[in-house]
Amino acid sequence: MDNAFYNGEKFLISYNNLWKILIDKNMKRTDLIEKAGISSSTLANMGKNQCVSLETIARVCDALDCEIGDVVAIEKSKEKAKSDAEEQPADKKKEVVLC
After folding, report:
1. pTM, to two decimals
2. Which CATH number fits domain 13-80: 1.10.8.60, 1.10.260.40, 3.40.720.10, 3.60.130.10?
3. Integer Cα distance of 93 and 9 in angstroms
4. Which of 7, 57, 53 is nearest to 36 (CA)?
5. Angle at 43 between CA 38 and CA 49, to 5 degrees
6. CA–CA dist 66, 53 (Å, integer)
7. pLDDT, tens digit, for every residue of 31-87?
8. What angle is formed at CA 56 by the lines to CA 39 and CA 15, rounded to 5 degrees?
9. Any idea where the domains of the chain sit in the sequence?
10. Are the beta carbons of 49 and 12 closer than 8 angstroms?
11. Cα separations (Å) of 61 from 7, 65, 79, 99?
12. 3-state SS string over 29-51?
């Protein structure tokens, strides 16, 4: 999963709910690629829980008639990200950084 940071805390991005929605709608990944107008490499990134643009997520939500929270989950990690957070500039430590 890709990491997101907020105030030195580590968060993980997950698209697991997206795959459940596709199953519920009896859709294949290739169907989503066509319906949402996204590339196969973008969908592959989502399959690896990597960052994608908000525009991509909006297209997926529009194609599946759902909300962002139905597709993306941000889970708090059990470990602190001190070394990663310390590398961030002080003004960025208080912001959520997704990618």
Report:
1. 0.71
2. 1.10.260.40
3. 9
4. 57
5. 140
6. 17
7. 999 999 999 999 999 999 998 999 999 999 999 999 999 999 988 776 654 544 455
8. 95
9. 13-80
10. yes
11. 29, 6, 31, 20
12. HHHHHHHHCCCHHHHHHHHCCCC
Q: Which are the contacts of 45, defined by CB distance < 8 A and separation ≥ 6?
A: 51, 52
Residue 58's identity, in one-letter code, is A
Compute the residue count for the chain: 99
Residue 4: strand pairing partners = 11
Which amino acid does the sequence have at 66? Answer: C
In whole angstroms, how far apart are CA 96 and each of 30, 41, 42, 55? 32, 25, 22, 18
- Look up tokens 């909006």; give the residue: 58
The amino acid at 99: C
